[in-house]
Specification:
- The chain is built from eight helices and no strands.
- It is mainly α.
- It has two domains: about 55 residues, no CATH class; about 60 residues, no CATH class.
Length: about 130
Amino acid sequence: MTDVQQLVDSLGPAGATAEILSSPLSLQELLDIARARGLPLSPKPSRKEVVNELIYSGSKKINKSVDELLAMNSDDLLNYFSEVNPSRSEIISLLASLGVAVNREASRHLFKFAAGEISELGMYQRVARGSHRR
């Protein structure tokens, strides 16, 4: 298979995604490529999820600071994650930087889990600073 980054450079993320999705590669072959790159995947990923992780794992989508994220409530975080569509790698890395481990069950609903955890951490941080706001 052509290097994924070459496809992204040539076709852009949307074109590379379409190209890989229409390729004859099986889900198992895509999983093997993703695992060889050490990409985090949900327990039973779809073909589209694996392709998105291959395409977007190298790009940073979250453009807010950790402090900005901590100031957001769970619903706002969930909407933000849905809007910018970060890779699983980026979400897991963000959570790790906050000291949050992602277990197998949480990885099935990663955006929702991350939104809840970050929102709670932000609330605790605001309480500790003495500025509880909603």
